[in-house]
Amino acid sequence: QVQLAESGGGLVQAGGSLRLACAASGRTFSDYGMAWFRQAPGEEREFVAAISGGGGNTYYEDSVKGRFFISREGARSTTYLQMNFLKPEDTAVYYCAAGYSNNAWFRAPSRVDRYPYWGQGTQVTVSS
Question: Do residues 15 and 70 touch, judged by C-beta distance below 8 A?
């Protein structure tokens, strides 16, 4: 089992920045690809960004490219999402997820079903 705990959400004005953190525990951190997803009210959960177990590969949803940056710190077993130039449409609950860093994960890191472990989510609200 992997336990995930997100932090760092909050209320920010449009154009501002936030950094989300996801602390993992329970298994070898580098064995897992990590990702952030988000879900707005009435919408399906959508992929935001992912990073491979070794940190050498990153993936982003088109609308956040150049604004959001995912990273991971092995010593702290923590994954980060730096969010810059935030827009009201970025408002959502953001979830951290962990999936086995295998060939299936690398073929489709944006798929929800690649991730058996999820955090509880943290709210991000961007005001206009």
Answer: no
First to last CA, the chain: 40
Cα–Cα distance for residue pair 70/58, rounded to 1 Å: 7
CA gap 68, 61 in Å, rounded: 9
The C-alpha atoms of residue 23 and residue 3 are separated, in whole angstroms, by: 8
* Angstrom distance (rounded) from CA 101 to CA 74: 15
How far apart CA 63 and CA 35 sit, in angstroms, is: 16
**Is residue 99 predicted with pLDDT exceeding 90?**
yes
pLDDT in tens, 24-73: 998 889 899 999 999 999 999 999 999 999 989 999 999 999 999 999 99
> Residue 106: which H helix or E strand, with range?
helix 103-107
CA distance 113 to 111: 5
